[in-house]
């Protein structure tokens, strides 16, 4: 990874309600992730979205995606390490055209493409506070654990004494690359669009499976089960060592 990824970044200090002081952008010096996009009926995904201006990005006509992603943040500025699990829906905001597949293959071509974050459990109170206060991320405290074999990386999400889900992603060849993601969240009755700037060792495979998930007995698992999510992943990401910056929201949009 390039050592100068954070060089020259202007930092803004923000005091949180607890009295903790954080810095924007949040700088993540070392973390690992697994992610997979699974197909689901677009009509069901629309029911999860907070605004009719957001449209599910389509894999094929009538089919959108649910994104399951697990993060192990091992070293970051201002806060202790924590783990996180994101349940999201790839979307576009007021697209003039909703072309199947292209936004997923070439996200940089579509200026409003991003991930609407539906659930975002984390493992520490500090991570909960800054995510909710600054961006309105839908966080709650949970147990998020990782296991690893020679072939795959596994994450188990558990809360309130019940399993929510288990995600497994197969290991794959990685290379140094830079990726930008954008999240959509709701705060103060607006949609916030936020840039997450990533670089490091990552591998991506498309349309070959490579990931599985299993639902538990928690109410969130029942919610996911009602979406009729397909078993074969449309895309998988395996990132053993990366860095990132979580920026302040770049746009505030009407719901």
Could you explain the architecture of this structure?
The chain is mainly beta and 255 residues long. It has a single domain (12-254), classed as Acetoacetate decarboxylase-like, CATH 2.40.400.10. It has 4 helices and 15 strands. The strands form 3 sheets. Strands 3-5-6-7-11-12-14 form a 7-stranded mixed β-barrel. The protein starts with 11 loop residues before the first strand and ends with a strand.
Q: What is the total tally of β strands?
A: 15
Computed structural class: mainly beta
CATH superfamily: Acetoacetate decarboxylase-like
Number of helices: 4
Low-confidence parts lasting 5 or more residues at pLDDT below 50?
A: none
Strand content: over 45%
Count of separate structural domains: 1
Largest sheet: 7 strands, mixed, barrel
Q: Could you name the CATH topology?
A: Acetoacetate decarboxylase-like
Helix content: 10-25%
Can you tell me the CATH architecture? Beta Barrel
Strand order of the largest sheet: 3-5-6-7-11-12-14
Mean pLDDT, as a whole number?
96
């Amino acid at each position: 990874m390039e050592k100068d990824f954070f060089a020259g970044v202007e930092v803004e200090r923000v005091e949180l309600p607890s009295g903790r002081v954080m810095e924007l952008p949040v700088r993540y010096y070392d973390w690992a992730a697994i992610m997979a996009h699974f197909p689901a009926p677009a009509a069901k995904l629309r029911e999860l979205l907070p605004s009719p201006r957001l449209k599910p990005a389509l894999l094929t006509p009538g089919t959108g995606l649910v994104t399951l992603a697990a993060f192990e943040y091992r070293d970051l500025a201002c806060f202790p390490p924590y783990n996180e699990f994101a349940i999201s829906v790839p979307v576009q905001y007021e697209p003039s055209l909703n072309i199947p597949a292209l936004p997923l293959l070439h996200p940089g071509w579509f200026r409003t493409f991003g991930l609407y974050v539906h659930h975002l459990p984390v493992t520490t109170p500090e991570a909960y506070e800054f995510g909710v206060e600054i961006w309105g991320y839908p966080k709650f405290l949970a147990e998020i654990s990782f296991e690893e074999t020679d072939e795959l990386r596994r994450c188990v999400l558990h809360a309130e004494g019940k399993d929510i889900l288990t995600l497994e992603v197969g290991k794959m060849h990685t290379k140094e690359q830079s990726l930008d993601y954008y999240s959509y969240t709701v705060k103060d009755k607006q949609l916030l669009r936020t840039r997450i700037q990533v670089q490091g060792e990552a591998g991506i495979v498309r349309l070959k499976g490579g990931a599985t998930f299993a639902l538990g007995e928690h109410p969130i698992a029942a919610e996911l089960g009602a979406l009729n999510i397909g078993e074969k992943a449309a895309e998988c990401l395996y990132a053993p060592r990366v860095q990132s910056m979580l920026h302040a929201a770049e746009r505030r949009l009407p719901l």
